[in-house]
Structures are given as structure tokens and as C-alpha cells.
Amino acid sequence: MRLKSLNQPTTPKNSLQTFQFIQSPKQSTKMKFAATTISALVTVLPMANAWIFSTTAGQWDGENNRRCTKASSSAGEVIDWENEWGSDCTLRVYSDSKCRTQIGIASDDWNDHELSAAMGSFKVSSC
């Protein structure tokens, strides 16, 4: 990289000068590639395993596993599971209040999912 003076000093030696950076096309391409790569990584790195689970009994969210949680909803009611893209979190839905009889599982989003059986509890795992 070279520096090229845009103006010639007409005042004493300690005067300010404006400089322009001159780059070869090869350096410019490398810098653009590096900037693009860094930008892409920065957008992905801070992602956490964020999830949100909504039922008629309430709403829960987190970034980590959640132990068995009592949450009652009747058959025919709508639940919503939203899992951040790239997350491995898995929702497990149970008919009883102690997470023993599993009736559903989802790792991808369940948007406006209608329960075919009554739900008594849920847990989130594999985050």
C-alpha cells in the first residue's frame, strides 16, 4: 500500500497534508473478502439456542434445557413452539404432569399446533 499526497505543502514543514491510500486491486479484493467473512461470522457467533413455548397455560422461554414443567392444556387447544434457527433444542410434550407419557416431540417450529390429546407437562432438551 502506498501513500499519495493530494496537496503540496505551501506553508512551513509542519503543515497538515491530506493523503490518499492507494491499493492494488489484489489487496482490495482480499480486504473485501475478509470483511465479508468477518461480517458473516459475527452474525452467527452470538446466536444462542433460544426457544419460546406458548400454551393456554402460559409462556416459557430460554436458551438452555428446561426440566419437566407442569403445564395443562386440553385436546384441541393450540400451542406454539419457536426454536431459533440452527438450535438443537427439542420440545417434548407429555400427557401427564410428571413427564412420563410422551405424546409429542418437536425440534423444528410448531406454529399454531393443535393438540390431538390433552397435555399435562413438557420439557426442553438437547440445547
Write the layout of secondary structure elements.
Blueprint: E1 2-5, E2 19-22, H1 25-44, E3 51-55, E4 58-62, E5 66-73, E6 78-83, E7 90-94, E8 102-106, E9 110-114, E10 119-125
Protein traits:
globular, 1 helix, four-stranded antiparallel beta sheet, 127 residues, 2 domains, 10 strands, alpha+beta
Short recap of the structure:
Helices cover 16% and strands 43% of the residues. The protein has 127 residues and is α+β, with helices and mostly antiparallel strands. The chain has two domains: 2-44, no CATH class; 51-125.
Low-confidence stretches: 37-47
Seen as an oligomer or otherwise, the chain set is: single chain
Tell me the series of helices and strands, N- to C-terminal.
EEHEEEEEEEE
Count of helical regions: 1
Structural class assignment: alpha+beta
N- and C-termini, Cα separation: 47 Å
* Average pLDDT level: 77
**Outline type:** globular
Please bin the fraction of helical residues. 10-25%
CA radius of gyration is 28 Å
Strand content: 35-45%
Report the count of strand segments: 10
* The number of domains: 2
Provide the spatial order of strands within the biggest beta sheet: 4-3-6-9
What does this entry look like structurally?
The structure is a single chain. This protein has 127 residues and is α+β, with helices and mostly antiparallel strands. The radius of gyration is 28 Å and the shape is globular. The protein has two domains: 2-44, no CATH class; 51-125. The strands form three sheets. A four-stranded antiparallel β-sheet has the order 4-3-6-9, with no helix packed on it. It has a four-stranded antiparallel β-sheet with strand order 5-10-7-8, with no helix packed on it. The chain has a two-stranded antiparallel sheet with strand order 1-2. The relative contact order is 0.18. The chain has one helix spanning 25-44; strands spanning 2-5, 19-22, 51-55, 58-62, 66-73, 78-83, 90-94, 102-106, 110-114, 119-125. The chain has one helix and ten strands, in the order ββαββββββββ.
